[in-house]
Amino acid sequence: MSKIIAVMANDVEDIEYTSPAKALTDAGNEVTLVGANANEKLTGKHGTEFTTDKGIDDIKADDYDALLIPGGFSPDNLRSDDRFVELAKKFMLTDKAVFSICHGPQLLMQTGLVKGRTLTSYETVQTDLYYAGGIVKDEPVVIDRHLITSRTPDDLDAFNKAIVNELA
């Protein structure tokens, strides 16, 4: 069993958290929802209400095997908080598994570590990734070592399969 941190703020793309989290837990993994504070109520873009399991200050990257960054406007909110940027940076620098979909790579760009990495994202973020030095592909799933990225909710089946296989 692997332990995964899912980071979230308000306005997450609901299904980009719920679908991967279900696929990961159905495969026997443990997903911990982390926000700015423990037991924080967050609302997705489509009205789903979420309650965080832990706050960012309550966790250590070393205790987890993977990082999940769902999209929507959540990653843009998270990247203004240095604690989430540092968490993502730790996962990237230690080459641990990072799963990022849609606008999720906005948080990864903030780490300064996408240069030379091959990845994808929602179409409007792809240009930003390119200017940050990423090698951008417009494909449902892009795998670069332990970094797995995807574009939209339409790609969730392929994304979920790839992230579950990464932890198998």
Automatic annotation (TrEMBL):
State the InterPro entries in the record.
C56_PfpI-like (IPR006286), Class_I_gatase-like (IPR029062), DJ-1/PfpI (IPR002818)
PROSITE patterns per UniProt:
PEPTIDASE_C56_PFPI (PS51276)
* NCBIfam families attached to this UniProt entry: PfpI
Which PANTHER family is this protein grouped with? Answer: DJ-1 PROTEIN, DJ-1_THIJ_PFPI FAMILY PROTEIN
Q: Does the keyword Transcription regulation apply?
A: no
Task: Indicate whether Disulfide bond appears among the record's keywords.
Answer: no
Instruction: Give start-end ranges for the coiled-coil region(s).
Output: none
- One Pfam match, given by its short name, reads DJ-1_PfpI
Homology family: Belongs to the peptidase C56 family.
Name of the protein this chain belongs to: Type 1 glutamine amidotransferase
**UniProt entry keywords in alphabetical sequence:** Glutamine amidotransferase, Transferase
GO function term, MF aspect, one = transferase activity
**Protein's organism:** Companilactobacillus halodurans
Q: Where is the DJ-1/PfpI domain?
A: 3-165
Organism superkingdom: Bacteria
